[in-house]
Design goal:
The complex is a heterodimer of chains A (172) and B (515). By secondary structure, chain A is of the alpha/beta class. Chain A has helices spanning 2-11, 34-40, 56-63, 99-108, 119-124, 155-165, and strands at 44-50, 76-78, 87-91, 114-118, 146-148. Chain B is α+β, with helices and mostly antiparallel strands. The chains are: A alpha/beta (172), B alpha+beta (515). Chains A and B meet through α1, β1, α3 and α4 of A and α3, α7 and α8 of B.
Chain lengths: 172, 515
Amino acid sequence: MYQILKKIAETGIVTEPAPGPDESLRVLQQRLEDSVLRRFAGALTIRHVDAGSCNGCELEIHATSNPYHNLEALGIRFVASPRHADMLLVTGPVSRHMETALKRTFDATPEPKLVVAVGDCGCTGGIFGESYASCGRVANVIPVDVAVPGCPPTPVAIMQGILTAISLRKPV
Amino acid sequence: MKIEDFPVEVSPVPGAMPVWRGTVDSEQWRDLAQQVRGKGGRLVALWASELSGRDQGFEVHMALTVRSGLVWLALGVPAGQPDFPDVSDIFPAANRMQRAAFDLLGVRASGAEDNRQWLRHAAWPAHASPLRKGFDVVATYPGGVDIYPFVQVRGDGVHEIPVGPVHAGTIESGHFRFSVVGERVLRLEERLGYKHKGIEKRFEALSILDGARLAGRVSGDSTVAYAWAYCMAAEGAAFFTPPERAHWLRALLLERERIANHLGDLGFLANDAGLAFGLAQLSRLKEDMLRLNSALFGHRYLMDAIVPGGVAHDVDGSGVQAMRAQIGALRAEVRGLKGIFDEHPGLQDRFIAAGRVAPELANQLGLCGLAGRASGMSWDLRVQFPATPYDALDVRMATHRNGDVAARVTVRFEEVMESLDLCWVILDRLPRGEVCAELPIPIDSSLGLGWVEGWRGEVLVALEAGPNGSLRRVHPHDPSWQNWPLLEHAVIGNIVPDFPLINKSFNLSYSGVDL
C-alpha cells in the first residue's frame, strides 16, 4: 500500500485543460433544445458502439480516459448499456453485419439522445468505403449530430466532438 | 522437418523470410499436413483464391511451419466441384479458416464435421461468393436474420447468457454465448464476423503501393506488424530489398508498438481485477509512448510509417536522444509497477489460476503468440527465423508454463523490458543511409509472403500481384484465428465475472479475423 501511495504522490496530477467545442464538426443542426443540452453538460453518459472499426478508434477512445485527458473529470462517463446513455459514440464504417445491432442500440437509447461518429470511417466510410459488406458512414444508418474526422482522431479531437455535441450552437 | 527432406518439390519464395512453395494434389494435401504435424509443425494460415482467367477453378493454400521455415502449399480445386480435403482433424485451428474460405469463395472442406457459416451472417447469400472475380463488389442483398446453430448444453440448472455483439465495455463487436450453471461457465461459444467489412475484396481494387495503407488497418492495434508483413510480401514479389536503415527502423517501430500495447493491456488487466491505480499509471506511460511516436513518426500508433520500399520517416540525433530518455524513464517506472503488481495480494488472487490453458492443450490446438508463450509454446519469430535486423539482435524469448492470466501478465512484463532493451540496442547500432527507395512494380502473378512477430503473435500476409502494379489476391492472417478457440477452452470452469479479465489477458483482435 505504501508503494502505491508513494507512486500516486510522486506522479501528481497530470491532467491537461480540456479542449473547447468546434462548430465545424457539426453534421446536423442542433437537434436538442438548449435547456436539455445545459443538463447534459457536466453529467453526460456515453455508450460506445463499434460498428466495424479496425479498432484504432477504440484505442483513442480509451485514451480519453487516461490521466492526461481525464474525460471523467468533465462529468462525462462511459456506461455499460445504451439504456443508460445520453450519447452514442460510434466508430467504424458500419458493416452490414452490424447494421441491425447499431439500429437496435440507437432505438434502445432513450430520448433525448445524441450521436457522435468517430473517425474517417465513421465520417465517410474511410478506406473501406461502401460495398457488399459495408454500409459506409454512420450517417447512412442512424442520424449523426457530430462527426469527428481522423484516422484515428486524437483523444483531444474526440473530446472536442463530444463537447461540441453538448454545447449550444453559436450564432453565426 | 527440414526443407531438404520435404517429400514434394518446393521452391523458395523470394523475400526476407525462409519460405518455400509447392503445389500438391488432394492426397498429398492431407498427407503432408499429417507429416508436418507429426514432426511438431503448426498451421499458420489457410486461405483460398480464384485462379486468374475465367472458370479456371480455385486454389486452397496452407502455410505450415517446418524446422527450416515456412512451407506454402497450394492445392488446385476444380471449378465444377470446388472441394478440398478437410484438415481440421489434424490442425483444429483450420476449422474456422476453412469455413471462412467457403463463405468467401465457395470452396468447401469435404469431410469436415463443422460446416456452419463463419464470416457470413446475412449480408450475402450462401451461393454468392464475394471473393470470386465475377462478384459485384457493390451488390447488396436483402438482409434478414442470421440464425446460427449454437451448440446447446442441457442439464439441470443450465442456462445461457448471450453477450454482444455490442459489449458493455469500449471493445470490439462480437457475440459470446455462455452456458452456465450458477456462476460457473460450462461452455463458451464465440460467434464472430460482425465486423466483416470486405477487406480482402477491397485489396483487389487497390494498387500494390496503396495496399500498404489498408494492410495497416486490418487490425489497428497491430498496424506496424501488418504494414511490415504486407511490405515484406510486396517487396519479395518485386525481388526488392529495402535499404539497411529501413529494416532497423521497422524493427524499432515494431518494438515500440509492442511496448505500447503491452502497457495498455497490463493497465486494463489491473483495472479488471479492481486496481484502478494500475490503469491510471500504465495508461499514462502508454500515452507518453504515443506522444513521442506522434512527434517523431507523424502518427500516435505509427500508421503508415512503414511503406513499400522502406519507412516514411527518418529520425535525427534529437529523436534518438528523446527515445533514449524515454527508454530510461520507462525501465524504472515499469520495474516499479511490476513490483507493485507482484506484491498485491488482491491482484494476484484474481490472476493466478484464472483462465488456464495447459501446455498440452496449447500444443494440441496450436496456441501462438504471447498467449502461446505463456503456455509453454516457445515460439517467437524474432528468435526462430530472425529477419534483418533481428538476426543481429539476439532476442531473449519470454516463456512461462502456467498458462493462466498471471503467466500472460508475466510474459507481457518481460516482453516490455526486452523490447525496451531492443530499442536501446537498435538506436545504438542504427546504420546510416537512405530510409526508403522506390519499389519496382512486380511482374504479373508474382508471389510474396510477409511473416512478422507482432505484439499479439505472428502476422502473415500472402500476396499475388496482378498486371501493372495491381493486386490479384491479398490474404492477411491474424494470430487471433488460432487463439480465439483457445479462449473458449480457457474459460471453462471459471466464473462468469472472471471472463473480462481472462479475455483481456489474451486481448484478441476481432477486426483482424472478421476481415
